[in-house]
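To fix ideas, we close by showing one paired sequence and structure record:
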Amino acid sequence: MKAFEALDTTGRYLMILPLLQARTPKSRKIRLEKALKALTIGEVPG
């Protein structure tokens, strides 16, 4: 995604961190969907 590529290192880390902290596949899926939605609408983390 171009939106993810446009993020700086900190922004990318803030997008990926919740995925890494998810303990179950279900919560990981929910967090991934949330991250993708945020990137789609142009929401910047942090």
Remarks:
- The chain has one domain: 2-41.
- The radius of gyration is 10 Å.
- Residues 2-41 form one domain.
